[in-house]
Amino acid sequence: MFTVGEYILLFSGGILAFYYLFFFLRLYLYNPKFTTPADKPVSVIIAAKNEEENLCENLPLILNQNYPEFEVVVVNDCSWDGTQEVLEAFQEKYDHLNVTQLKETELFSGGKKYAVALGVKAARYDYLLFTDADCKPSSKHWITEMMKGFNKNKKIVLGYGKYEKMPGFLNKLIRYDAFSIAQQYLSMALAKIPYMGVGRNMAYHKSLFFQSQGFKKHIHLPSGDDDLFINEVATAEITSVVVNPRSFTVSAPKKTFKEWAWQKKRHLTTAKHYRFTHQIILMILIFSKYSFFSALIFNSVQNPLNTLVLSAFSTWFVMHLTVIKLNMIKLEEKGFWLLSPFLEILLLIIYPIFTVSNFFHKPGRWIR
């Protein structure tokens, strides 16, 4: 007979195995064949606040994309650096750059949701592709590859926004965190449960924005111009996933733990506003992780020679490394594979700390 602790270990381990094999493995096995030509006019929308340096480096890579008809809409959200001057200089060279400037007043201080909404309204075309000022496309065919996702009746395209590989442990943690989140939302979308996207790389039809009245339902939250909006409007029938390496965007990661922690804390405020069914699916995964590792520790203390504990951990370890490796190949990630079990456990420790700290320190209004 098993003890209660052993039953918890087996049950939570079984749930984890289901998520790894039923959901996450889908990403590696995904091999779409898009048949609709990628030639629809598209507006690329970027909300920028104090992004002088990033725009100088990344905007030319977007403006010089190999695509038949597109415009780039940049909304300068109350910047006080040289952002506006940089944009005006680019406008002299590129006719397809559309710039909208917001100015801060005593009654208005901007905000990313307002900037994104203004960009949508300023867009000339019905298909909208979103990225951030600190993102660079991985190829000259970024727009083409993302637009292939609008196959047949699709109105939402979810892409992958990775972080630049740099030396150091923090970089590995940041990249694994972004990879893990992408593995989750992309594989869930492939399982017909689309629940979020990231503003670094996603696209949707303009009609969805106006049908849902933009960000009206969550305008009071600083985050959510990407994940909460997709959570609200996405269905399996209209959502597509694109993971061709030429479709990726690459962002510069935060350089200090404090900067990354502040960013993560703000992003964590949105999940409780997801649809109830999505919250349940995500909570089952989260609780199974905590239950599994807690049961491992508990049973190990109770009986250090427990072979069930060793078998359960070994099974999870091999399964985790196998699925992670396959999806790292799919998303062209390197450098954190063998560390990933430790990083997974570390994030399980860090996230609750960030969540609790949000009760004492509210996030700001502008979030990238």
Structure notes:
By secondary structure, the chain is α/β, with parallel strands linked by helices. The protein is built from 12 helices and 10 strands. The strands form 2 sheets. The chain has a 7-stranded mixed β-sheet with strand order 3-2-1-4-8-6-9, sandwiched between helices. The protein is globular and about 75 Å long. The N and C termini lie far apart (52 Å). The mean pLDDT is 92.
Please specify the SSE layout and strand pairing.
Layout: H1 4-29, E1 42-48, H2 52-63, E2 70-77, H3 83-93, E3 97-102, H4 112-122, E4 127-130, E5 135-137, H5 142-147, E6 156-158, E7 161-163, H6 169-190, E8 202-205, H7 206-211, H8 227-233, E9 239-241, E10 249-251, H9 257-267, H10 276-302, H11 307-330, H12 340-357
Parallel strand pairs: 1-2, 1-4, 2-3, 6-9, 7-10
Antiparallel strand pairs: 4-8, 5-10, 6-8
Q: Please identify the top-level CATH class of the largest domain.
A: Alpha Beta
Overall pLDDT: 92
What is the CATH-assigned architecture of the largest domain? Alpha-Beta Complex
Regions with little confidence, pLDDT below 50 for 5+ residues: none
Query: What share of the residues does DSSP label as strand, in percent?
Result: 5-15%
Figure out the total of helices: 12
Q: Helicity range of the residues?
A: 40-55%
**Per CATH, what is the topology of the largest domain?**
Spore Coat Polysaccharide Biosynthesis Protein SpsA, Chain A
Characteristics:
368 residues; alpha/beta; Spore Coat Polysaccharide Biosynthesis Protein SpsA, Chain A; 2 domains; 7-stranded mixed beta sheet; 3-stranded mixed beta sheet; 49% helix
